[in-house]
Amino acid sequence: MEKSLNDLEQYRVQRCHDIEENYKQILENIARAEQTRGVPEGATKFMAVTKTVEPYFINHALSLGIDLIGENRVQELMGKKPELNLEGVDVHLIGHLQTNKVKQIVGEVSTIQSVDSVKVAKEISKCSEAKGITTDVLVEINIGDEESKSGLEKNLLLETCHEIAELPGVKVEGLMAIPPICDSSTEVREFFATMYKLFIDISSKKIDNINMHILSMGMSSDYADAILEGANLVRVGSSLFGARIY
Ligand SMILES: *Cc1c(COP(=O)(O)O)cnc(C)c1O
């Protein structure tokens, strides 16, 4: 019994140490990419993706100064939230959101990054109005036109933005994407570059009630590539916390 407690303690100490080292490395990589891109250091918002990670380790990451976390599942987020030290920390939902879960999540996160239809936006707006708040959203684009993935078809972006702009309870703050799995950095950068172009195009339209200023793209394997192509919010899970085992 005593031994296994020690093992647990040792595991925690080691994992916390790893998280610190990983975070330092990631910040260096981000700074280098920002420099190459020619944007100011610190221009990229860092999100720690906390899916499957126990609150103990999330809290350790937060103690390092991380102030934005992302979760995929409404249920998992609601379960962990009471155990998290969220003072001064922003929480976003980044996973696909079913209409029937909207009611539970509205008011629990500042931003829903995974809005991919007018239908879900309408529901978010309705629930937000009922709570007397507005919810920030990003429009998720299915940039690789993959059947298996959620996200809006890029051709529908403009008309979808116009429709969402009419909704009183939501505010579009930007775009989000998860590109297809690619064999090379060159290949993934093309998807990121296409996203950046969409982002610039739609920003220039100056749609009322839309403040297009966040471009959320890049994960553990490609956040530097994303920054090189214009991302200003990166979502990093396994490179920070270690590989997800389930
Ligand atoms: C899991 C997830 C991430 C982070 O993935 P890693 O490869 O572990 O960094 C980022 N964005 C979304 C939407 C995710 O679901």
Structure description:
Helices cover 44% and strands 18% of the residues. It is an alpha/beta fold and 246 residues long. Strand 1, helix 2 (55-63) and strand 2 form a beta-alpha-beta unit. The two termini are 26 Å apart. It contains 9 helices and 8 strands. Strands 7-6-5-4-3-2-1-8 form an 8-stranded parallel sheet. The longest helix is centred in the N-terminal third of the chain and has 36 residues, at 2-37. It binds pyridoxal-5'-phosphate (PLP). Pyridoxal-5'-phosphate binds at residues 49, 51, 72, 94-95, 178, 219-221, 235-239.
What is the topology?
Blueprint: H1 2-37, E1 45-49, H2 55-63, E2 68-71, H3 74-80, E3 90-93, H4 102-105, E4 111-115, H5 118-131, E5 135-141, H6 157-165, E6 170-177, H7 185-204, E7 210-216, H8 223-228, E8 233-236, H9 238-241
Parallel strand pairs: 1-2, 1-8, 2-3, 3-4, 4-5, 5-6, 6-7
The chain binds pyridoxal-5'-phosphate.
Low-pLDDT stretches are: none
Intertermini distance:
26 Å
Strand content: 15-25%
Question: What is the structural class?
Answer: alpha/beta
| Number of H/I helices | 9
Q: What is the β-strand count? A: 8
Mean pLDDT score:
96
Strand order of the largest sheet: 7-6-5-4-3-2-1-8
Small-molecule components bound = pyridoxal-5'-phosphate
Order of helices and strands: HEHEHEHEHEHEHEHEH
Largest sheet report: 8 strands, parallel
Give descriptors for this structure.
globular, 8-stranded parallel sheet, alpha/beta, 246 residues, 18% strand, 9 helices, binds pyridoxal-5'-phosphate
